[in-house]
Design brief:
The protein starts with a strand and ends with a strand. Strands 2-1-3 form a three-stranded antiparallel β-sheet, with no helix packed on it. The protein has a single domain, classed as Ribosomal protein L30/L7 (Ribosomal Protein L30, Chain: A). By secondary structure, it is α+β, with helices and mostly antiparallel strands. It is built from two helices and three strands.
Length: about 60
């Protein structure tokens, strides 16, 4: 399964609770924090909801 690295690049201040919860579920919470995940349909959906706050790239294997 493909691994991706998600990095938060914008603040979650003044964002709806739903977006804050999504960032926390992705393992993020502050600017420049990164996490790695397998690319599943669930993770894709979460990334789509907060795409304006994060940058996605392939993880180094």
């Amino acid at each position: 399964m493909e691994r991706i690295k998600i990095t938060q690049v914008k603040s979650m201040i003044d964002r709806p609770k739903r977006q804050k919860d999504t960032l926390k579920a992705l393992g993020l919470g502050r600017i420049n924090k990164s996490s790695e995940h397998n690319l599943t349909p669930q993770i894709k959906g979460m990334i789509n909801k907060v795409s304006h706050l994060v940058v996605v790239e392939e993880a180094d294997n």
